[in-house]
Records
---
Amino acid sequence: MDALVETSPLNDQRDRLRRRLAIAAMILAMLIFGANFVVSRHAVLNGLTAHDMLALRFATAGLLLLPSFFLAGGLASCGGLGWGRGVTLAVMSGFPMSYLLLTGLGYAPAAHGAVIGPGTVTVVGIVGSVMLFGALLTKQLVFGVGAVLVGLACLGIAGTHHSSPTIMLGDLCFLGVGLIWAGYPLLIQLWKVDALKATAVVSVLSMLYLPVYALFFFRGFDVVPWWIIAAHAFNQGVLNVIVGLWIWSWSTPVLGAAVAGRFPPMIPIVGTLLAIPALGEIPSGLQIGGIALIIFGLFIASWRSAARPASQAHQSQIPGDTDEKAEPQRRP
């Protein structure tokens, strides 16, 4: 008993430290994801094409994850996921999604990508949670989704009246990104797939694009300075695909799903604000209104675990993220 009493304060201190580290890690992940829209658009506007960025993304992440994740699970079983599930996940978060994202950044402002993608993912994710997992809709959740939809409509109207006709095309690409990407976390949850294993499989399968790139889109290594190529390879393959997802996956079970769900609204804030000094993209009045509505709606919809399983509507527990056990409701 004395030993238990003596170690209890130490355990509490460790828990507080892990929680603080998880909050810091989650903030870092949001900064990485939000800044990627600006960094990628800067690359596209300064010599690199969407195909170049795709090759850097999948070559870097795929080669780094190939030995420890994909081959460890077995080639015959597609890294332990099965080829059907592996290919499906690769379509949703591999080449098609990434191509739409990087193509859209060549036509529309980075701020549009940072808000349209997460906004669409939120709406589709809520609908999918209701249909697949029996989640309940609350007034707060419906209000937040409504604000997101109105904000998306404002951006669409602003795009049709913009001096550049390509804005709408870019926004449609970002909408496609949101529609494709939204199914990825739903299937991860439905199939109970480890996030890092899924990332490894997606990255390795997406390397099938590299021969196509080498044959039809490769322009040589002298189109831009080598340090720019290295920097964007690090940003695309290491920061966004490996580091961002890893710290997201580690932080979520530490904080709990209800608290972790409050961080994604940081993505459009980071992307919108960073695009002003980095790219000189000053949004119009209608665009500012649309962006503000989407950010506001995301905060309202994610501030509490608004969509909850019907069987747990009156309980004080939420599902765990890495297994089927329930974990106590945590507060920040």
---
Amino acid sequence: MSGEVLRDAFSSRLVAVAESTEQMLDRLLSPHLLPGEKTRPPRLLEAIRYGSLGGGKRLRPFLLVETARMLGAEGEGVLRAACALEMIHCYSLVHDDLPAMDNDDLRRGRPTCHKAFDEACAILAGDALLTYAFDVIADTPTHPDPAVRADLTVMLARAAGLGGMVGGQALDLEAESRKEPHSREFVMLMQSMKTGALLLNAVEAGARIGGADAAQRAALSHYGALLGAAFQVADDILDAEGDTAALGKRAGKDADRNKATLVAVLGIDEARKRRDALAREAIEALSGFGDKASILVEAARFTALRKS
């Protein structure tokens, strides 16, 4: 299969998974009450939907869905797991944008949640998304095997929590006030937690749902870690070189706030080399899967070369 055909197949799958994710999120985040719920406050629900629907490439759901699909698992349950992960990601964006965190006014080309509503409502919207994500992933329709659901729940909690995304955000905020230069090792650790943990979880969750054996899971974990690192270096480069209109968020903020980035540590040229090397290594990690991994291979290339 030619490179152009593979790129077209990847693009079609990316769009299809994004549309399916949007539809499932729309269903999950409807006014419809679940057993045990008393009401879904309309303004809070509106803020939750504002922070979750109508934007983004849905890369994390895509990686989960495509990893599971490569291993022969498809269906509504896989998509529910992907949406639970995306809820965690969306909650993190809502909270990261708050004045106490990154203090951003723009996200995906429109006002951030706390600007469109208010700070208290944005905090509660993030809280609700975080909690609901675990409701979704632990519920029976996500997978018939309770052991699989339990594993997915623990995996997601650890990727999102103290030793993962939230811990990485704490390190990122601490770094802003440092006087000494950020070390490469610190930046790589922080990025592997703040950004890499959820991207890695997407691949590992897909592997768990797809019934991967130990060797397959090890290869896919290696791929997911490398892809997550490449994604964040690419993000650093886009912030340094991109413009606000193309990115859909404020460009140039990393340098303004003394953010710990590999662009700051290595310089733009070396950061590009590292991004490309990480993408190549991620692709090599999939060699044992042969042509079945073609979509995930293209995902690594896309991650390195994306423009927004």
